[in-house]
Amino acid sequence: MVENQTLSRKVFITFNYVFLGAATLLSLFPIIHVLALSFSSNAAAQAGWVTVYPVDFTLGSYKYILGKSEFFKAFAVSVERVVLGTVISLFLTSTSAYALSQSDENFRARKYYAWFFIVTMVFIPSIIPLFITVKAIGLYNTIWALVLPMSVIGFNIILMLNFFRGIPYALSESAFMDGANHFQILRRIYLPISKPSLATVGLFIMVMNWNEWFHGLVFVSDPSRYPLQTYLRGVIKAATATNLDLNSAEVMKEISMKTLTSAQIFIAIVPILLVYPLLQKYFVTGMTLGSVKE
Fold this sequence. Notes:
By secondary structure, the chain is mostly helical. The two termini are 29 Å apart.
């Protein structure tokens, strides 16, 4: 590190720290505000006194949510959706990317299939033919209607494809000479050294499946099978005290629709906040590896 920095360099570094710190605080403010609202009383929330810390601290909103079975049913559906969706999507994405990463000599139709996935990124199909397809094959009102339509994403395939193409071909060539087939090469060579790419794509898939609410509204008619985001959307849209049985004066003193909604939103984002730090060390590497070719 250079000890004798010029004045302009010091000003530049100071400005960077101040700017990035302000941007970080600005991005964290909505989360902190929602958290403060969820721990505040009805009167404080309605009066607009809550900013970044709770006013008249209470656990009433969280106690009310813990007593609602519908919330936990929707939470369980979302967890099942994320687990199934991540496993299936990673399998399909990695196998597709491996095939597309082969040379033209080994896979002559590679370019045509690659363009097929690129076209799906540009021209997104409408919901009507997708709904007809889901209902025709018997997936309507099942967990598979939430998982399978989003299991193959062109962007994820292209991202992993670029990573696979950076792996030396000599590795797979030597494995072929030892009698390995394509599935063995993918499982024993490509996937073990592709953890950054897998973690990046896996995080994209988890966030997408966890946050998506529209398919639950279209492909599921039974409210007990709604994923969490669809359930929360219905709660927020029908935000009245009558719908949530807030008729008791004692209950109304502690909680309101605003505090309940804030508590539900914060609970919904906690799983992603917990998963991201575990994958962060792979995330930046996965985003950059394969993006530059020598």
